[in-house]
Amino acid sequence: MGVFYLVHPIHGAKVANSEAEVLYDITNGWSRFELPKSSGAVKESDKIEVTETIEETEVTDTIEETVRKKQGRPFKKSASTDQEDLLKSMGLV
């Protein structure tokens, strides 16, 4: 089993994981390509400079807000709760 890189003029690039998949894809317009060989060393020109950082509290607040939003809508009050509220408002309970 290997890793095969394919490219298609419409669909872009993809990775296949078997020779059979490659042969099938070639019949559908895909063609093989090889990645450029890399020495593995990071060149000085490839390094980037970090210009902005995110405060940890900002990320925490965002996650908590996201969790709250994904909890769904609040439960509808049951009929018994409505009856209790009515009785309380009338001063009977």
Describe the structure.
This protein has three helices and three strands, in the order E-E-H-E-H-H. The model has no long low-confidence stretch (mean pLDDT 76). It has helices spanning 19-27, 56-69, 79-89; strands spanning 4-8, 12-16, 31-32. The chain has a domain at 1-35. The chain starts with a strand and ends with a helix. It is α+β, with helices and mostly antiparallel strands and 93 residues long. The protein has a three-stranded antiparallel beta sheet, with helices on one face. The longest helix is centred in the last third of the chain and has 14 residues, at 56-69.
Assess the beta-strand content as a share of residues: 5-15%
> Could you tell me the mean pLDDT?
76
Instruction: Give the fraction of residues assigned to helices.
Output: 25-40%
The strands making up the biggest β-sheet line up spatially as: 2-1-3
Uncertain stretches:
none
Structural class based on helices, strands and sheet pairing: alpha+beta
Please state the overall shape, judged from the principal axes of the Cα atoms: elongated
Terminal CA distance reads 75 Å
Most strands sheet: 3 strands, antiparallel
Tally of DSSP helical segments:
3
Tell how many strands the DSSP assignment holds: 3
The value of Rg in angstroms is: 30 Å
- The secondary-structure element order is EEHEHH
